[in-house]
Amino acid sequence: MNETYGLRINGRDEQVREAWLGESLLYVLRERLGLPGSKNACEQGECGSCSVFCDGVLVNACCLLAADAVDAEVTTVEGLGAGSTPVQRAFLDEGAVQCGFCTPGLVMAVTDLLQRTSDPSETELREAISGNLCRCTGYGRIFAAVRAAQQGDAQ
Amino acid sequence: MTIARPRTVADALDALGALPGAQLLAGGTDLMVEINFGRRSPDDIVALRRVAELGAFEVGEEVVLGAGVTYSVLEHDLADELPALAAAARTVGSPQIRNAGTVGGNVGTASPAGDTLPVLAALDAAVTLAGPEGDRTLPLDAFITGPKRTAIRPGELIRDVRFRRPRGPQLFLKVGPRNAMVISVACCAVVVDADRRRVGIGLGSVGPRPLRATAAEDALAPLVDWDALRADRDAIQRAAALSAEAAEPITDHRATADYRRHCVGVLVERALTRGLEP
Ligand SMILES: Cc1cc2nc3c(=O)[nH]c(=O)nc-3n(C[C@H](O)[C@H](O)[C@H](O)COP(=O)(O)OP(=O)(O)OC[C@H]3O[C@@H](n4cnc5c(N)ncnc54)[C@H](O)[C@@H]3O)c2cc1C
Ligand code: FES
Ligand code: FES
């Protein structure tokens, strides 16, 4: 049976119409609500490229049933700002974006880290992005971007 | 497909009664993968995310962990009280998975590789099931009956896991290809219980369900200096060898049975050495 339900995404009320209730939040964001910022690379929680905030908590949108997020406040990478947050600017400035597929998820994970800890250690940083796979950069540029974003925040 | 979104255990049980065969959903980190890949297509879902009482925990003489307690809560809020469970939580998946995944989901899935399971086994944990006729409690060993098999009955849900809080070191160690995002090749938990003068040794990923190395425990207990909480190297090595014998590993795409057995010996020796400083 298909059903219509409401979601609250990036501060806006959205309607998911006549959808199969088994769809993940990732699928609904990308295929039904026109929000393709969250990427689909694995659909099994392994790559982090679909990372979103659900009531402020970093989770993988592919592991969240959309119909179970009805009363949650969901923030996707689109809700962070159009490339304008310190983390996003640092990723661009430091060349931490190559093919870019992992970038939205990494931006979400790094944003989460810097919200929790203003001055993360190297270990905390590695831990924070351990669930985000990047096949292009080798991560060096990503670490540099996080350091740059931190300094940007501090200024 | 329909979904029920109860806010209390009582309402969740009503929903299960009204939707026979409904699938329970907690953090979704096991179930959603199955649904995404079409391996499961439940007719009905009872989502437990809003059931606040399942997310609660109590740490006194007895520890009661609601089924909805996440790995993040274990690792951040209970690291001092429950060091082995917190250590196991820290090795699960990624921050995203730990924010969503729950103890109840780990026990409910009952995968041979579930990382909390050997710890709960070593702690002599029991599982409380809430059902239409009230609650019943089963030892973990009776609840998990085989790989991904449990004694849960239709209409029931896991309310909590509980165990007496032991006094003494508790450790968890795991082997996998890297330090994050890995399913255990082998893991072990050691729980030193100074009051009962026993050392619980739980083994994970080396059998159809979590194992207790009881022969190793029996051999070790009389050799521990219980006032100093120490054991000598010989006693520890003997217990590690007996633990490796207790393993029932299989060869699969992650590792060979021989390697897994070898891991058990190394891990148990290391954990006992850290816990009982020879
Ligand atoms: C990328 C990735 C990495 C992972 N890494 C690890 C790891 O390192 N170690 C590990 O042990 N696991 C790992 N897992 C598996 C998973 O995260 C855990 O098993 C987790 O504890 C499942 O909890 P959940 O709340 O997400 O369960 P769900 O997916 O919501 O449910 C899992 C099962 O338990 C049942 N269930 C849930 N709650 C209850 C309840 N209260 N009563 C009865 N049944 C219930 C559900 O019906 C379902 O069958 C990983 C998963 C992913 C996707
Ligand atoms: S698509 Fe969700 S973690 Fe990979
Ligand atoms: S930039 Fe291509 S995967 Fe990270």
What would you note in describing this structure?
The complex is a heterodimer of chains A (155) and B (278). In chain A, a hairpin with a 2-residue loop joins strand 1 and strand 2. Chain A has 155 residues and is an alpha+beta fold. Chain A has helices at residues 25-32, 86-93, 103-116, 122-128, 140-154; strands at residues 2-9, 12-20, 51-54, 57-60, 73-75. Chain A folds into two domains: 2-78, Roll (Ubiquitin-like (UB roll)), CATH 3.10.20.30; 83-151, DNA polymerase, domain 1. In chain A, helix 2 crosses helix 5. With 278 residues, chain B is α+β, with helices and mostly antiparallel strands. Chain B has two domains: 2-164, 2-Layer Sandwich (Uridine Diphospho-n-acetylenolpyruvylglucosamine Reductase, domain 3), CATH 3.30.465; 170-276, CO dehydrogenase flavoprotein, C-terminal domain (Enolase-like, domain 1, 2-Layer Sandwich). Chain B contains eleven helices and 14 strands. Chain B has helices spanning 9-18, 31-36, 71-77, 83-90, 95-100, 103-109, 116-122, 140-143, 214-220, 233-246, 257-276; strands spanning 2-4, 23-25, 44-47, 57-59, 62-66, 126-131, 134-139, 144-146, 149-150, 157-164, 170-175, 186-193, 198-204, 211-212. Chain A binds chain B through residues 1, 3, 20-22, 24, 43-46, 48, 51, 57-60, 62-65, 67-68, 70-71, 109, 112, 127-128, 130-132, and chain B through 1-3, 5, 25, 27-29, 32-33, 35-37, 41-42, 45, 47, 49-50, 93-97, 99-100, 179-181. The structure holds flavin-adenine dinucleotide and FE2/S2 (inorganic) cluster (2 copies).
